[in-house]
TrEMBL record:
Any Gene Ontology biological process: proteolysis
Annotated Clp R domain residues: 2-173
UniProt name for this protein: Clp protease N-terminal domain-containing protein
One term of GO molecular function: peptidase activity
PROSITE patterns in the record: CLP_R
Biological source species: Saccharopolyspora griseoalba
Domain of life, per lineage: Bacteria
Pfam name, any one: Clp_N
Entry keywords, A to Z: Hydrolase, Protease, Repeat
Length: 175
């Protein structure tokens, strides 16, 4: 399937891998893909065209991924305020210091089942639109169909129906 990925789609996957590494994530999930899509390129332009603030979206995805790192509820039961600890670590050691304390994955980072499903859906979207290559548009259409990353889009006040319509429009190819 990767042989059908355009340069843009490959960059999205590389960006997703970089986000996963930054978060010390053992696997690349759909939120990492969404962060890669929001980073730059035509997919990010499509998001902005439908009123999504890609900086806000990236921040929300970042916070959502970071929330997976430590169990805030379990720490709260012990009397530890994770947000306060994280904020203090950020002030003392820089943004994301608490996450960086873990070990960075090296080499290949595998995809979660959901991320694999998203990439399969991107192929289906390309076929449905009668296009030979998979680009960021197709990946974003697949993300919109999913659950976890779509929640981040909704939290960023994305109009998913409008986004989907814009991505499916023929002129979206050149956007």
């Amino acid at each position: 399937m990767f042989e059908r990925f355009s340069r843009e789609a490959r960059e999205v996957v590389i960006n997703a891998q970089a986000v996963a590494r930054e978060h010390h994530s053992p696997k690349i999930d759909t939120r990492h893909l969404l962060a890669g899509l929001a980073a730059s390129g035509p997919a990010a332009a499509s998001l902005r065209a439908t009123g999504v603030d890609t900086t806000d979206l990236a921040r929300r995805v970042d916070e959502d991924i970071a929330a997976d790192d430590l169990d805030g509820e379990a720490l709260a039961a012990l009397g530890i305020d994770l947000e306060a600890v994280s904020a203090r670590a950020d002030r003392l050691f820089g943004r994301g210091a608490l996450r960086r304390a873990g070990r960075r994955p090296r080499g290949h980072i595998p995809f979660t089942a959901d991320a694999k499903k998203t990439m399969e859906l991107s192929l289906r979207e390309a076929i449905r639109l009668q296009e030979r290559t998979i680009d960021g548009r197709h990946l974003l259409l697949a993300v919109v169909r999913g659950d976890s990353a779509a929640k981040a889009l909704l939290a960023a006040r994305a109009d998913l129906a409008r986004l989907r319509t814009n991505l499916e429009a023929p002129e979206a190819e050149s956007a």
